[in-house]
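[09:14] KT: can someone run the structure on this one? pasting the chain below
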Amino acid sequence: MTRKLLTVSISLALASASGYVHAQGNASAGKAKAASCAGCHGEDGNSTMPSFPKLAGQHQGYLAKQLHAFKNGSRNSPMMAPLAAGLDDQAIQEIAAYYAGNKISANPAPTLPAGDDDDAPAKTEEQKKAELAALIAQGSDLYRNGNLSREVSACVACHGPYAEGNKPASFPSLHSQHADYLIKTLTDFKTGARSNNRENMMHMIATKMTDEDIKAVSYYISTMK
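[09:31] RB: done, structure tokens below
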């Protein structure tokens, strides 16, 4: 019995090691194939431009799903479609493995954008800090509790307490993502410009969110690590 258990343990260990080496190989190949992505998403998947998403640390399955969506047209993007069109299934998996294996960078402390009303009196630094703190607190409450009166679901239910996502369900990791990109994404779900998610779930949630809700929760998520 002991010998059988030992044999099984060794077999499992070898299988695990083989899987690890295979994953590492995929990531290495993916790094080379992702070179053309660096201009927008950063060399390691940490985009420095707020309008382009960070890909580092995202779940491999979710990244692969989005690349397939760009390729088959179910997710509309004039910029990404031609890039994804030239990728076969193996290249998609390798690129996704590369980005998934990298660590997402934390964002600098957020600042509120300048207001559109030029005639409004200038705000003091203390007023700006108080406004930002209130916005992030609003976003935190919405992320964790939703809004019952408007039937806005809590983000935590699908994306986790630390915005780490849910790998088996293909719900993406969100923490440390750029606030500007999150605002655009939620707005696209709200307007229907983006709809490639399970049962159009995000559209149904986002349509019940105000622009202030979207801004607040995006700013809050951007501060999560």
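[09:33] KT: thanks! The chain is about 55% helix and 0% strand.
[09:34] RB: yep, looked fine to me
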